[in-house]
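Margin note: ligand = (2S)-2-hydroxybutanedioic acid.
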Amino acid sequence: MFESLKPAAVDPILGLMAAFREDPRDNKIDLGVGVYQDDRGRTPVMEAVKRAESKLMELEKTKSYQGIAGDAEYNSRMLALMFGDGHSILSSGRIKTLQAPGGSGALRVGAEVIKRARPEAKLWVGVPTWPNHIPLLGGAGFEIEEYPYYDMESRQINSELMMETLRKVPAGDVVLLHGCCHNPTGADLTNAQWDEITEIALERGFIPFIDTAYQGLGDGLEEDAYGMRTMAAKLPELVIASSCSKNFGLYRERTGSITFITQTAEQSGIVAAQAMTVARQLYSMPPAHGALLVSLILGDKELCSDWKAELEEVRLRIKSMRILLADSIQDNAQGMDFSHIKRQNGMFSFLGVKPEHLVRLREEFGIYIVSSTRINLAGINSSNINYLSESIKEVLK
Ligand code: LMR
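Resulting structure:
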């Protein structure tokens, strides 16, 4: 039977990651996949995670099945992280969170549940968005519509066109938003824009679906949650997929959660039960290890404050690399302006060079950048910045 299969397209981000690993050059630079690297180019296990792991070794008494919704303590601690203590939604009875296999697993469970609730709903995604959003969410059977998000010319959010399009989204459709650290552009919604979209969602009756994979890597843990906290306070329904891959560095542990806010408390029980059936059909139960670590960290005052300090270091390092890169390539032969990199947030920005420049950077200089020109700022460090900026300036000559 397999003879009927055609070769599948390589994932644009993970394919690049594999090509980078195979490149034998010592001076190669990985600005591709969204994985944090420290100033020595390593992706270390966070200290707080290491300590939680030792603790877990002692505490863990069983590897028996955990259940479809995952660890209850993890779920409630994730809610506290996302919404902060004392948010009105937490005591409303209208909210349910389930542990999920990473942000991607969370997105898919959310999409499948929405599809069950409203089979005719269309899903609106901003242009551009994380490339895997389309197959991952489209795979649940959604028809996908687009709204303009980023203007390549001005290198900022095209607010006017975006709002104009959102004002036409039919009631009952679903609008995908990035919670913070927009992937791939780094151009985040301002608080005022979040307020405006919340008002439009209320007026039009569409349901926002927030993908929040970088809480704490943009302006800070609290600041990065502004959008979801505002929407949760004002909207009758909301879906949020969150990930611990980046802010806890738990990439391979597949740790995330899916949150549903419903109009009534009664509906929230039904939605959670439906989400569990979806999960059971897709992967049965989420993996335990990462979630147990996150739960231990968030539940221990000292570990939690150490984790927050480490995360803050990560955030500030990325910010400083933004400034360093933008300043060191500003004097390029083509007079290209790279100052947007300094104004943007999180791991990514578009470099905005031409496709032929990317090919030369990869082939001649061993610098790996996704074809959209998205660069991962965390791949820059004090040892490679000169080589990187000189190489970029060389291809721009
Ligand atoms: C990325 O955007 O590079 C990351 O989220 C990794 C992935 O799965 O694509």
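Residues 13, 33-34, 130, 132, 183 surround (2S)-2-hydroxybutanedioic acid (CB under 6 Å).
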